[in-house]
């Protein structure tokens, strides 16, 4: 175990995988100078510019070329810089990467990791702040990963790089500097296995990415009021750990989902709908979602803050759920 | 009467040209069978025939090795055959049958045979340009001496991937060959009307990719241009670009009667179609008409049999619909 | 009233709006020859090639230029040909069109209609068959429209063209030839008002686009078995008519949502989750969704058929819902 | 001592140059205030200063009328000021305050002033190229005699919109001016390393858009190139392209110390920075040092005041966060 940041943990994972497998390589703008958030700092010195490759400002080519390179026996890790810019490469991800294996009847494999730093971060405004993880859960062929801790950013990135299918990998910009214990060596975290961030008997709060921490804080507040919330960190949205959620709801009888993405059409709807479908008899109160309002993300700090899913908002919503039954 | 040897230009490799002629006929006959399948409603999805463009498929692919990579467009049957794919498996794929190259899951627009390095036709215009750039990138990373080739239409040069993909190949000096089949049309639109500037070659050159223009209905010219380009690429010279001028003798799809172009124009184009042109060269070089007619007959017989086989082939089992989606997560209804 | 096809109704709507407002224009590939499905047949003859404009194969430019043209006082209707190809223009739609008004503090207006023919249709395979309407509901700033009848294709397209905000307009390819009565003249259908396609007391089936017809057929079958399903056609997914759905569920006590899109992360999740949140006390049985499995769309007819949400499947699911309570 | 008239080149329009000098100083001082705001943590989002590139903003925009259209990039403050936007409202926007050009909802990367035809900076590299092509399209459809201009960086020429947008403008012969600010860098990357071919002008020409290259640190050269281009466009000549070579004197953002480039290179670049160069021309032409120093002083005073005003300005009310989303549907929590 060592203490390191979320960003460093990701870097360690990539470096370890690159040492293990010479076919792993990374490509994106400015990687040779460490990447825009320093996530690649020092790697070009170890691996050279062919394997830690700069790229032109060509998101579509970065992703599209990675599809071709993945189909031709390498394992590219592509850096999209901001999840928002991945919107310049959607055909490449959705029509090509996600479908190639199926469409070609299993002839193609696309072992590709698409790193998409996501979320609200310091007045980054409408085009640099989005959380679009929900979109990719809707696309057959894609794995969707949203690590919330340094340890998971190591273990899940390693698993993503080893995946023979394309993985959309969301790191939250607000967590780069978050510190935590990270297991040494070759530890991977499997897809589809949730983490219980906190146990509780009264209410299940499902979350992922940075919002897990807000949910955990909310749970601490609630504990002071006698409400014991169980916080489940999904870690991966596809596949997602239905069994863990169902088991928790069977115990608590109440479900809330909290995420930073816009609530309408977000992945919270999938979780809430699935629980409503499958745990009807267990539910003592209506399921509840908490996400962003359906507005673009504003620049001015107070307007940006207004959209954040905070511990306070989560606690308030949780109280309402508990008091409804 | 044997043709006097003097009538044969010295540099004609008759065997190579005979093989081109045979392959061009196989492509034409395959396309005709595919059109027939469309008429008989055994293919419901769109079929984009490459009739009239066979010389490009053949002239380019005869310069690629089996382990070289090819990616293609919606109009990809000819390229796939020329790269060495099995016609029987291809026709089964077009009819959506078990035993198809992709178990019937891709169909005409996604025809692929990874065994022969054919990484797929593509339903999205120009998308294969990026894929080829990436395949070439992988080849370079792996230190191999292979070439990745992308064939696309003149309409594709108006999409971003043309710029991004060629720039990519140039910046990384990748072993990539880009071939533009300039048939004058993008679907029902004359591409000239929607294309600014002097054309595909100038665009490639402006991206640093050396370009040549050839008569795409002259298989010898295409063969030669591709040979030079592939040699330069294999020698480490970075990407190359070929524009091959041709004409799409059919409608855009099997369903398109192409009323938007005058009959005269099409008739004129038929007078320059590549198979007859090559046949003339071969005849002039003393090859017997019977030999050439034999190629046509053999090709038709082969493709008739191929079509009959596909018609008789079973549907893929329904389980195929859930296979090869992804390793993680159960995609089935009820599993979520 | 006149009888016409879904395709003709759309054409009539566009022609009427173009006659009414000289700033309305349409642009897309092959429009001068009537468009790939004939939806524009004859229009270039009336309006000329400037207003029924061909385009290069440049989906990103078609959409991106339309954003600029909309911000500069015209009302473009852009044709994406297949909803799948709109994935080549996602930055333009999501980062530009949807956000401009907000991001520029109300200075910009983007009166733009993006027509996206959607859905499974005759072995079109993985890259020409997708139903991605759910994605756009997740994006603040966008209106999302899914007409299911010729009359609605006229009235909603007219409303879309008059909208001062960007509208993503999904026409289902399987309905081009569907005939129906269409009101004459200047009739628009407002956004956010659902249509009750069939009344019933036992179960509410919410749907949109072509699946409405499958749901209606299923309801007829069910009626023969004594189950009276109410079929609600949402018509627009954003805004969507929550009140109509809530009122119906208050009456029937049971909700099912049926759509062609992939079930995971589809808009059915939003409807089901919302009903589960707000109608808990009304529900006699768990909410239920029916969409496609999470697989790319296959080419072979039997594999394609397997994915279709048919009247039979809807009826079967409905029976299960009704028998659960 | 008055400068002898003969030392003034005949074609110098001193008044015009003085106005350029004043405006360039205003831009520089605005950028310095913006950097100060960043240092004081009153701007949290990224600031991309245009220090060293003022001549392009001024030389281009002085040829545009108020009703001409401009769209810009992440590095757009200078362009916006040069197009005539109010510095006070702009600085309030940067600080996210009420009274900002966009009520504080867009910030630096989305700076816009539609009143003066400035349709916005853009956070997505090259996205403004399409928007400009479309604005020009609207101008043509409406039969107006306006011009739409897009300014973007040398990094932008590697994105698809460069090809698609310029091709669009050419195909429809639109009144569009495209200006590439070639400052040698895209963020921390030297653009030359990631750009194939001879450069931006060749790419534009290959798309049919006539191109010229100018010294972007020479405001007179930029002014002249823009004047000619705009005149040609207004005369119905279709789109034009200008590449202006310059150097980014600061880091990519306020937070970037730019350790990836040698100090020598930056020092050398400072010796060619555009304001001092113009000042020299004016001094050589006999303009008093005091006049030129006055421009600097006035600009600094103005921007100090502008910054003080912004600091004192109130936050936008929270209700702004729900305004101007869209007419249909209530976006608020609880409404759905
Ligand atoms: C991105 C995209 N836009 C539109 C289409 C529809 N489409 C299919 S083929 C075609 C014309 C292509 O023209 P060209 O590239 O010249 O190839 P050709 O058909 O002439 O072989 C079009 C527009 C598509 N498949 N992909
Ligand atoms: C599509 C996209 N990719 C990446 C970025 C991140 N980014 C912001 S500015 C920049 C460099 C732009 O370089 P250039 O176009 O030369 O403009 P300059 O900064 O030099 O003015 C990059 C890569 C972005 N904003 N948009
Ligand atoms: Mg063509
Ligand atoms: Mg630059």
UniProtKB/TrEMBL annotation, chains A, C:
User: Membrane-spanning regions, if any?
Assistant: none
Q: Enumerate the Gene3D superfamilies for this protein.
A: 3.40.50.920, 3.40.50.970
Identify which cofactors the protein needs according to its UniProt entry.
thiamine diphosphate
Q: Which SMART domains match?
A: Transket_pyr
Q: Name one GO molecular function term.
A: oxidoreductase activity
Q: Name one Pfam family in it.
A: Transketolase_C
Q: Which UniProt keywords apply?
A: Oxidoreductase, Pyruvate, Thiamine pyrophosphate
Which InterPro entries does this chain map to?
A: THDP-binding (IPR029061), Transketo_C/PFOR_II (IPR009014), Transketolase-like_Pyr-bd (IPR005475), Transketolase_C (IPR033248)
The residue ranges of the Transketolase-like pyrimidine-binding domain are: 4-177
Under CDD domains, the record lists: TPP_PYR_E1-PDHc-beta_like
Q: Which NCBIfam families match?
A: PRK09212.1
What's this protein's name? Pyruvate dehydrogenase E1 component subunit beta
Native organism? Thalassobaculum fulvum
